[in-house]
Queue: 2 jobs
Job 1
Amino acid sequence: MSDEQILDMLADQHRAENGFRLLMNKYQERLYWHIRRMVVDHDDANDVLQNCFLKVFKSISRFQGKSALYTWLYRIATNEAITFLNKKKKRSTASFDNEENTLENKLLADPYFDENEVQLKLQKAMASLPDKQRLVFNMRYYEEMSYNQMSEVLETSVGALKASYHHAAKKIEHYLKNT
Amino acid sequence: MNRNKEIKKELEEIAPMLGKLKDEKSSFRVPENYFQDMQEDVFSKLNTVVEEEKVPSFWEKFIIDSIATLQLLLQPKPILRLAAVALVITAGVYIFQKGPQAGGQQEYLADISSEEVMEYVNDNIDDFELADVVEAADINGEGLYSVPEIEDEISDEYLDEIIDDFEIEELEEML
């Protein structure tokens, strides 16, 4: 079903629930993986995704169609994930562990992460990137988005995104080769 | 060229190892039936929110209305306007009782009608400080225009009482 048809249903009070179900069916997996790669842990990703959909439902009437629906949804999901990470950083008490060790422990404790040495190393390499750079890397490397699509979602120039992605890829490559 | 190939080609130069890992299976998984269960959780939360928004109790409605009224009354502009009107009336009574006097400025002011003074005050209401207007209006020093202070006391007490009954999120939404 097209986005226009879904939006029409959402605008009609009697069909809004079905419309919202269709919207979730269409975008939930993409948004989940977008969020999961940022927050890493499944339970955290679940919380962020649910908050994201609650926000979408409450504010769908304000969606003006200036951008594609998926762009708008990605933007909300990205903001929710970044907000979650910032809050988590503030909440976390002083720890003697560095970020990589914390992530490693977290991944090993996550029942929804299959232990795999190469993947674990890759995740640790990604954890060393700043959030925004990691976001750009994920969108290109895993979600295979074009720079133009990324530019619409992140409201950043294509040039800056290319530079950010190249920088991130080089840092990860360096980490993989040297550890 | 499809996107996957384009990305791999891009990585060949800058990060060949990453390029090779590109098609490896991800280690992340989701629980069985996760997406179906997640949808039900979202709908259940939405229904709870809708129910809460739909039926405010009598007291909730009373408190919300009271806060809205207080906010309206405590806005500086209506108070300033009330004080300005009181100033004009008092000035008029004062001038009328004293009668015309010699002296340039007072004679000049006596020629200005109450309507003109009121119009001037209304046009320039933003230039007046509340305290100046109240002080100017209290010509006989009887403290007749101390209403804002009394209201502040009442409102502080009243607001403290009712604010205790609210969740922070509810207050943030109202403000």
Job 2
Amino acid sequence: MTMNKTLKKALTYALWVIIIVAAIVLLLQGTSQTNVINLFSNTLVFAIPLLLVAMGGCTSEHSGIINLALEGIMIFGALTSSLFLHAFVNATSASLFTRQSVVLAAILIAIISGALMSLLLAFASVNLKADQTITGTAINMFTPALFTLVAWAILGQGQTLIKLPNVANWICVSLADVGAADTTNVLLLLLFRKNMLTTWIAIILFILLTFVLYKTKFGLHLRACGENPQAADSVGINVAKTRYAGVLISGALAGLGGLAFTLAAKTSADTSVSGYGFLALAVMIFGNWKPLRILAGSFFFSFLRCLSTMHDSIAVLAKINIPGKVDYLYKMVPYLVTLLVLVFTSKHSQAPKAEGIPYDKGGR
Amino acid sequence: MNKKHDVLTRLRDSGKVNSILSSVLAILIGLLVGYLVLLILKPRYSLIGFGRILTGGFKTFGDVLWKMTPLLMTGLSVGFAYKTGLFNIGAPGQFLMGTTFALIAALVLKWPWYLCLLVALLAGAFWGFFPGLFKAFFNVNEVITSILLNWIALFLQNYIINLFAGTMVNSYTNMTNALALVNPSAELPKLGIDKLFNNNNLSMGILIAIAFAILAWFILNKTTFGFELKACGANKNAATYAGINAKRNIVLSMVIAGAFAGIAAGLYYLTGTVQLSLGETSALPAVGFNGIPVALLAYCDPIGIIFATFFIAFIQSGGETLDIYYSSQSVTVIISAIIYLSAFALIFKSTIARWLHGGPFLSTRKKKDATKDVKPDTVPPLEAPKDARPLDEASVETSEEKEARS
């Protein structure tokens, strides 16, 4: 019986993979190799912040706290880490090791500052039993304003842009760094077009977090607090502490996601992460609060985003003639898809049952 | 003396004083946070800067009224939905849709202002309809659908305005054409208000906004429909049990909230003094989100929202004179601190209530039972039940009571 079920599941996954690969092959017919490489590497680079932040949102919600502040925390992570990176904006020649150490330090700063900012949410929603939606909205308003204030105070009046060291040559590990500047190997070209430390750390964190959530005692406790905190409390789990942990993990990941997004999209950090925090929420819902589906969702959404900027260089899409600026329609698709998924799967939603409800011992 | 005591007691027990005091406390702490941020960033200018936030609005009173106009409408939008237990974080999206279609009506179709305003209303209502529909019939959280719809609205606005760019947009400035040049009939009548307060942006828009606040107050407090909406907000199941169509009311509440946010856009862009800049359209409009603190500060009471809007617009206007020392964004820090505090307003309220009733100011339930600390002279006098009668009358049962018992 179980064998049958596993087989069925495996077959479903295989079918999906075949459909997706076939769709991509059809879509990319007649497109030049450079453009295909650009499309895929961009998809990876932009999927990483989505993956990180959506996993963060997922962890927080599994512990029972809705983290609507993801966008704001991303901006804060971007602010602190890019202020640090800004110090190296004129350091043109540095060894690969020095550069990567600096990036690693920036990553740690982003993680720590994200976690610190999320303390605001944890304190209000766990200790004060506040409305989590409103608290999240407050943080989302607070951090962009703080960004402007701090940037102006440090860089001078009116200087909202925090210039970063050259991303392609300084922050990324380029082909020249590994001594293969003129390679024609497709795999190498793909791998080293934007090879950032954040990408690899994000992949490790994703695997680690999935393992922690589903294979450890802590993960079980965390999910128990999101499903039924009364029951969790009755068997001796400290709901407050566990929820704090969930929110702090989500803050740390969102902070890192802010840095990853800034490095992927910009040459200098500014007060916006282009709604990626909210897009990550959409990814989380699209992924039905499950890591593997969130992984798939973040790649799908990122792919659409990259198509929106590159549709002219994709042969098949360039032929389709829609009036107006089609970019905006492509950008709209992820949100529309999530909306439809929400509406049509609301009956089978796997959302944690106690999310958004402050835990009250008296309600036991 | 006794009578005066009664009035005070009644006021205290009605909860209104309580609400106002806790809002004032939220504002004070919010201002303190703002001051601390200024102090940390540039200690030298902190007092001047803070003074400008607090008093700048007096010098630019016309600007305060102008900033109030759309803010009052988005505040009503959030507040109205909140009364029905719905959190309308979708006001920015509804505002964007109102903007888009009001501008199309004004610049492409060349309609007069009242029709443009109606179009803005309908566009906002249409965008509020979806979260309500999904909430009522598919039980999808309106917060998340509203957030998704905000971004859909943003991209849709960009797409639609670009479709009509030939007739609507000035290609040099990348802004929509000025109403005065293309269609002066779409400008809101000024009625001399601009001269009165010496601010070119002002028009009858502020009067329309205040009229809508009064209308919202009337609907919520004086009509059966408003009562039903509030009943749904208080307890959906109980309301359904009492025969109220909760699903219909959820949809209607969101539609009305959306309409308010749509009108906000209409009142803002139909003054003719501001144009939609295509470059700016990569972010959601802040005025939509600012409706949230306005509504929360006023505990969603429409008349209270007028005052809360005045306060927020006042510090915003004052904050704009701050750009020499700090960024005007420092006001946003204050506003966000106020929202943060409003999120646990209930704690404020219960603390203040305990204090008003003479209990210790900052006690927690763990320490002592608060009721034991109440001083005898401040205990509200026990009122006799209204239907109590002297004993001798009690034996005579009226026919009504007989009916009621059977």
